Amino acid sequence: MKLDKEPWTARKLRLRLTKHGLWLLLSLWTGLTLAGYFTPVKELREELFTWTLGPWETFWIFFYGGFTYLMAGFMREQVCKYMCPYARFQSVMFDPDTLIITYDPERGEPRGTRKKGADLKSTALGECVDCGVCVQVCPTGIDIRNGLQYECIGCAACADACDVIMDKMSYPRGLIRYSTENAMARHLTRKEILRHIIRPRILLYTAILLLITGLSAWFLSHRIPLKVDIIRDRSTLAREAEDGRIEHVFTLQIMNTEEKPHRYRITVDGLKGAEVADRNEVDVPAATLQSFMAVVRAEADSGKQGANPIHFNIEALDDSQIRVHEKASFLLP
């Protein structure tokens, strides 16, 4: 704050350039890290050092890096105030018995400066020395002494800073502390505050949280570590094979999401006599996406003219629980 008010000098310019330079480096590193989810990091690093990055890689690195620089370097607390939904959720879930960061006006008011060791009764002042440290350390720039505000993110930096000042002034800690509106109004003790924990709102939130946790655990434990995308060859709608049957070519994108390799068998159903010609098994290494070309054949009179629905069944040979059933279409002339 002091530096902002100073005139431009070589020192101020050096500090500003150093700060923004470090912000830019961190922002570009963030963009590089996010792009590394889609391009192998080793390959991306080599392309970066040799200036051979592709257009999309360059775009996303600078896109993420630019927004990181904008939000963390310039907007900062404005992101917390106006973009982050946390404060809005806070106000919806809040009630008078919610633990919050509070300032005790009965102890602190009237606030004012005084010498260390001064008698409070003779000065007619409260314990707040009006140093402003609580405002200086607040990441969203609010004054907690003005009461509860939606910008407060509950970090308790103001409480820690105030305790340091209270220690220096030989006053008891807790002028700014965790408490509740009811506790402040009724002068409740810590035990009395704890008695208000079990209430309908808390029970409802706990039940919802347990339900979400339980469902997440169930879906995670029952997930199938296999994903398949099917793409029909659109360059040839249908063609006649050597044996007179009609055949289609499909590309199966098989993703093995488990940490061990599997061998899968591919079969089809939904159309009388339809089968996967040639090979119908494929090995997929652990955590790998692999393409498989499947040629499906069926008799010309096995279905109606036009599109006929079929289903691909992809099953791991070493574990019958790992299988998926994916829909596709088979065209008959």
Describe this protein's structure.
By secondary structure, the protein is of the alpha+beta class. The chain folds into four domains: 2-75, no CATH class; 87-188, no CATH class; 198-223; 226-332, Immunoglobulin-like (Sandwich), CATH 2.60.40.10. Helices cover 40% and strands 24% of the residues. The strands form three sheets. Strands 3, 4, 5, 7 and 9 form a five-stranded antiparallel β-sheet that branches. Helix 2 (10-35) packs across helix 4 (55-75). The longest helix has 26 residues, at 10-35.
What's this, in brief?
By secondary structure, this protein is α+β, with helices and mostly antiparallel strands. It is built from 13 helices and eleven strands. Strands 3, 4, 5, 7 and 9 form a five-stranded antiparallel beta sheet that branches.
